[in-house]
Amino acid sequence: MSDSLKKFYVIAWVFGLIFYFLDYVIRSAPAVMLPQLTSHFNTNDLDAVWMIGTYYYTYSTCSLLAGIALDKFGGKKSLFAGTFILGLGALFFLMSTQFAGISGRLLQGAGCAFAFPGCVYLASKGFSSKSLATAIGFTQCFGMLGGASGQFLVGPWIDSGMDSNAFWLWAGVFTIITAFVLYFVIPKENSEPEIEKNSKKLGYFETYKIVFKNPPSWLCGLVSGLLFAPTTIFAMTWAVAFFETDKQFTFHDAAITSGMVAFGWVFGCPLLGFITDKLGRRKPVLVCGAILMILSLLQLAFLPEMFPAKLSMFILGVGSGAAMIPYSIIKEANPDFVKGSSTGAINFITFGVTTLLSPVFSYYFGRSIGLSDANSHFQNALFFWISGIVLAIFISLLLKETGKKSHEI
After folding, report:
1. Cβ–Cβ under 8 Å, residues 44 and 38
2. 205 — phi, psi (to 5°)?
3. Out of 23, 177, 233, 306, which could bridge 112 as a Cys pair, Cβ 3.0 to 4.6 Å?
4. Average pLDDT over every residue of 150-161
């Protein structure tokens, strides 16, 4: 690929970051407007949380479709479709029926499934392998900046009396506008020989056969999923309720504290990506990030006076930036012509783990908020996530090092 074309892909990647930013704003915002959504859709808190969680049903499954679309049709059509569907999903929340709420959340998940694979796809074409992990880390950084905005900004807006419908209207309109911008800035790809000779020769699911037959692909997905879950399920869905009820925080403080995880990602993702690129090693940084997550949760559970909860959650977010490292590993462990499918596959496994863990956590810990001893309830909930992170560390030890210095091992 020529240097000039790579520059166009870098420009397209920058605009793709806007899509990913909106992805996380829309993904995280419902956590700080739960009472408003409960009233709007005429339901109870537990059913409203279930409705919010349906996002991951379509997110995980449509990640596979996103990978196929990127490998077969390129970034232009794929990212336009994903962004447009996300915008429609946001507008569905303007209707006050539970059917519209569930449909909208399912559409949001389906559209968002194209955001990160699309950005990684564009980054892999615009950046060299020496800086790919840094670019992927910065991509996630921008997404989590959106996640932080969905809580830091939207939470106070809602608390000050902003109508939730106003948020969903503008989120939908701006996302649809972004879809059309992406369509015009992403380069056409019909002149790229590697796509014609490799990916397009294969059947629609042949690329996934290559990825899923490779054991490291599954290991990468499991590790990433177990490290993602504490942020996607706890911080972005349940943390506000836990801090309000178990820790007696005000709504405002609970929203800010939970949002610090996403803010930590803003720093942790590019920082850990940069470190792993500089070291030429993936696994040591991955394990160290997971250990940092465990230490932050232990401190929050047993030594809450040592650091403010906001700082503890920020540190958790920095450490959980390690969840992005498997996204580099899976691309390096699979052929170049399945770039889109490898990212789609790890997204499918990662958020498949989230989809499975979310109802388990809700059943054992979510529905018992306020019904048992607050301190032990909070500690047991954090132990649930610590056990998953420990499992992720053990699985990561089975991965083969793929960094640029792996040949020296």
Report:
1. yes
2. -110, 5
3. 23
4. 74
CA distances, 117 to each of 66, 81, 320 (Å): 7, 13, 19
Whether the pLDDT of residue 30 is over 80: the answer is: yes
Cα angle 95, 99, 105; round to 5: 80
The identity of residue 48, as a single letter, is: A
* Residues 78 and 69 sit within 8 Å (Cβ to Cβ): yes
Per-residue pLDDT, averaged over 6-20, amounts to 87
Residue among 329, 341, 398, 106 at smallest CA distance from 210: 341
Tokens of 54: 């349906």
H helices of 230-338, in order, are 239-245, 251-279, 283-302, 309-319, 325-332
pLDDT digits (tens, 9 = 90+) for 77-106: 899 999 999 999 999 999 888 888 899 999
DSSP string, 19-87: HHHHHHHHHHGGGG-HHHHHHHTT--HHHHHHHHHTHHHHHHHHHHHHHHHHHHHHHHHHHHHHHHHHH
CB 44 within 8 A of CB 147: no
Both tokens assigned to 345? 């596959």
From residue 333, alpha-carbon distances to 90, 214, 219, 269, 326 in Å are 36, 8, 11, 21, 10
Please report which helix (H) or strand (E) contains residue 355, including its range: helix 339-361
What is the Cα–Cα distance from 235 to 231, expressed in whole angstroms?
Answer: 5
The set of residues, in sequence order, having a beta carbon less than 8 Å from that of 78 and lying 6+ positions away, is: 66, 69, 70, 114, 118, 340
pTM over 0.85: no
Q: What is the pLDDT of residue 382?
A: 94
Other beta carbons less than 10 A from residue 367's beta carbon: 12
The contacts of residue 207 (CB under 8 Å, 6+ apart) are 67, 68, 71, 199, 337, 338, 340, 341
